[in-house]
Write a structure and sequence with these properties.
- The protein has ten helices and ten strands.
- The protein is of the alpha/beta class and 273 residues long.
- The chain has a single domain, classed as 3-Layer(aba) Sandwich (Rossmann fold), CATH 3.40.50.
- The longest helix is centred in the middle third of the chain and has 18 residues.
- Helix 2 links the parallel strand 3 and strand 4.
- Helix 1 packs across helix 6 and helix 8 packs antiparallel against helix 9.
- The strands form three sheets. It has a six-stranded mixed sheet, with helices on both faces. A two-stranded parallel ribbon has the order 1-5. Strands 9-10 form a two-stranded antiparallel ribbon.
């Protein structure tokens, strides 16, 4: 059954920015449900699933409706066809691993779908120029809402401390969001961190996927390009906002229109922040 009129969904990856944005959207904003996008970039008992289970438990503890949506695409099959993806295939992998679920949400909605995320301008110089508090996506089928778009790291920390917001233990142990392991901007050191966090089987799974014999050397291994991730993220013109391991999380502003203050719960106008 389709959901009528506007639908506001908080997309939570379990990372610090994402948790803050989800809390803000659910408490101070119009979001009424939380969705975790399972990318299928790991085995069933891997970090992606464990991370999603933590998000589920956190939402349930707050009384928030929760839904985990898994991509219909098979990451191992994509690797078997083309080899491990590198930076140039980031946007394509995002479409396969996360966009499909958003398409489903849009198809279920009669009216506008608004997806609240944790992306922030201060994550890179390129994002400083591209991230907007609200943006149309999916060929007009949904809108990004970035409540933390203009927030600094320090402001996120203050907000999380004020509301005693936790972070997924998986993300905290690994030192990055754990919802996607496509490896497009992957640093192979991340596999060491993944194993050290108790997910050695997941790391082995990523390294053991079948690849075509004629694939370039860089695509024969996960993170085979071994580029500095931050440098590649700065060159990501598409600024795919939901691949948190490749790019960033997001903040709460509305481009100058009146908004409800996340810090005080009072109304604020342009220039007051």
């Amino acid at each position: 059954m389709k959901v009528s009129s506007e639908r506001h969904v908080a997309l939570c990856s379990g990372g610090g920015d994402s948790v803050a944005a989800t809390h803000a959207a659910m408490i101070f904003g119009p979001a009424t449900e939380v969705v975790y996008l399972n990318t299928g970039t790991g085995p069933g008992d891997g970090a992606v699933t464990a991370n999603g289970e933590w998000v589920r438990e956190w939402c349930e503890s707050n009384g928030w409706p929760f839904r985990s949506m898994e991509t219909p695409e098979s990451f191992p099959e994509k690797v078997a066809e083309n080899g491990y993806p590198g930076p140039s295939r980031h946007f394509m992998m995002y479409q396969k691993l996360k966009d499909r679920q958003l398409c489903q949400l849009a198809a279920e909605t009669d009216g506008d779908l608004h997806c609240w995320t944790g992306i922030r301008r201060f994550e890179s110089e390129r994002r400083m120029r591209h991230v907007e508090p609200e943006d149309e996506r999916g060929d007009g089928r949904w809108f990004w809402r970035a409540p933390l778009a203009n927030w600094t790291d320090e402001r996120v920390d203050v907000y999380r401390e004020r509301f005693d917001l936790p972070v997924s233990p998986v993300s905290e142990s690994i030192g990055r969001s754990a919802d996607c392991w496509c490896g497009c901007f992957g640093d192979r050191v991340e596999l060491i961190d993944l194993a050290a966090a108790g997910f050695e089987d997941h790391a082995d799974w990523l390294e053991s996927l079948e690849t075509p014999d004629d694939a370039p050397r860089e695509q024969q291994n996960w993170g085979g390009y071994n580029w500095e991730k931050d440098d590649w993220a700065a060159e990501d013109d598409a600024q795919v906002t939901l691949c948190s391991s490749c790019g960033a999380d997001y903040p709460i502003a509305d481009g100058g229109r009146n908004t409800r203050s996340l810090d005080t719960g009072t109304d604020q106008s342009e220039g007051s922040q």
